[in-house]
Amino acid sequence: MKLLNKDGLLGKLTLSILFTAVAVGFIASELFYRVVYNASFERAEVEIGMLHETVASTSSIAAYLNDTELANEVVNGLAVNGVVLGAKLTTKEMAIKNTNFVEQGDIYKFAIKSPFSDTEVGELLIVSDTSFITNRAQDNASYNTQALLIQALIITVVSILNVFFLVSKPLTFISNQLSKITPPSTARIKHPAFHKRGELGSLVKDVNSLLIKTESSLNDEQKYRKEIEILEQRFRLVFDNANNPIVLTDSQGNLVLSNNAFSMLLEQTSIKMQKNLGSFLSELFEDASNIEESFRKQLSLTNTASGECKLKLNNKADKARWYQVIATVIRTDEFKDYMEISLHDISNKKQKLEDLSNSLEKDPLTNALSRSGLSAKIELMNHVYTNYAVIFIDINGFKTVNEKYGVVNGDQLLKAVVARCKTRIRQDDVICRWGSDEFVLILAQVNERNVDAIIEDINRVICQPLTLNGYEGHLDVSASIGVALYPSQGDNSSELIQMAEGALQAIPLNERSNTLSIVKFAG
Amino acid sequence: MKYSNLILLIISCLLSIGSLQAKVDISNDPLVIVTNSDSQLNELTHDQLIGIYMGRYRSSDESTPILPIDNEIYIETFYKQIINKTVPQVNSYWARLKFTGRDYKRPEKLESSEVVITSLISSTDRISYIPLSQVTDDVKVIYEITQ
């Protein structure tokens, strides 16, 4: 440890005390010199007055008698004094002075009276020794200055020692201990000797209490961190070992997180793991642009979107792989959006549906599903879809067409209606010939919101004019339609079909005979 | 000045009558300075008298030297009256002058007025003091000491 460091407490204190001591000493000695100088001159005046008193009677006799010997005695006796430079005794008849006498500087003039009367018999001139007086003042002042300097030195040294032993050393003691402590540690600072109380004592106390707080809060934090780590490990275990591929992307579609199942899925495709696999992982699937559009539409209404997508396989000969893709927007506390995308393998279900629809009985005329195959198909759809619509269609005036234009043209009308409907339904949707001129459509993923638009669309295609064989002009086609929705209006398939039929029956017959199609909803 | 001094003197004299018998005697019979009746000296001032008796006028300095003589009977009164000093003070004064190396001569001291008159008769350059009542024809008064 350095005792005198310019930036340390001691150094600063030393500098300031030294500076103050020197400045005050300088001013004080300057002031003192002036006072002493003036005092010295005043003292000289008094001294000369007293000297005159001493020699007054002798000088009086000398002047009275005009005695040069006595006058010399007076003059030389005066000059012995340091304060007197020279003296001169004059009478009418003589002028006695000593060798140093010069008539300049401070001259003190005393009249000499006769020893026997008040008559003046002469004059005594005393010249003060200005340089002697000045020197005397300077000597006094310099003694004083020296005394002040010594005092300043002693005070400085004592102050430095005091500060060193009372402040610097204990502070260094504390700081050395503190620098060795790395929280969280159980180590505490010891009190410096003789500083159990007072400012340093309370400093140590405060530092120790701070150390205790730091230790406990750091320990708590470590504990929490461990708990979080364990929790995270568990979550990761669940996430990584999940059977379904799960990924987390940011709002731009960049992959943030993906599990092992996802990596395994990628291996089956020709696509390599990369940072961005398109929005909603669309690059993995066929018909990517449609998927993206569909998901965006759904997400604009709600924060979850789903769709069935066909995987782009490495080997085209492999069996088709279908996944239900569910994308959920996750908003963090910091208002940052992430997308959680989970993939569920629905290939088996798809296959079953396909197999089933292949095995079901078909109506030989229209190639629509026969009435017996419908209920099985509906049961299947109950498992796969969360909602669908049952649409009951009756062709208006079919009997009249049969009678008027022949059965061949009647059959053609039926075929045309089925063909037209097929252009508007999707692969999983079902069309069934229920009666001679009655059809039932099962449309997957149709609900209250979109049912109107879909029915209008279907109605529009059915109602296109039809050209008949052997007749000129064309036949205006119209149909009556009833609807029932799963699951909002019922969860039993035969019930739903009845409800849809009931809705259709409720339309008055006169309205049905019109060429205009009348659509009536069930419920 | 002289009138006022005179008036003061008269007042003091009137006040002291009866109470100071000795002084009355002196004022009635004052000391006078006398010399040989043949001497050329006819008058003296007070300062000259002091100068002669206190050594200021020395025989060597003057063309006609004057030798002062002390009358032992009246010496006390004389010095008291002319310089307001006691005889020991006067002795001290002469003692101091003794060591200056110069030739100061203290007035010769004679034991009585008769001896003084005899001495004055023998020379014309001597002066001394006697009470006015003892003045003879052989001497003349050249100064009367007033208070």
Q: TL;DR of this structure?
A:
The complex is a heterodimer of chains A (523) and B (147). Chain A is α+β, with helices and mostly antiparallel strands.
Topology, element by element:
The complex is a heterodimer of chains A (523) and B (147).
Chain A: H1 9-65, H2 68-79, E1 84-91, E2 95-97, E3 107-113, E4 120-128, H3 130-180, H4 198-241, E5 246-250, E6 255-258, H5 260-268, H6 288-301, E7 304-310, E8 322-331, E9 337-345, H7 347-359, H8 371-384, E10 388-395, H9 398-405, H10 407-424, E11 430-433, E12 438-444, H11 451-462, E13 466-467, E14 474-475, E15 479-486, H12 493-505, H13 509-513, E16 518-519
Parallel strand pairs in A: 15-16
Antiparallel strand pairs in A: 1-2, 1-4, 3-4, 5-6, 5-9, 7-8, 8-9, 10-12, 10-15, 11-12, 13-14
Helix pairs in contact in A: 1-2, 1-3, 7-8, 9-10, 10-11
Chain B: H1 2-16, H2 21-28, E1 31-36, H3 46-53, E2 67-71, H4 75-83, H5 87-98, E3 108-110, H6 113-122, E4 126-131, E5 139-144
Parallel strand pairs in B: 2-3, 2-4
Antiparallel strand pairs in B: 1-4, 1-5
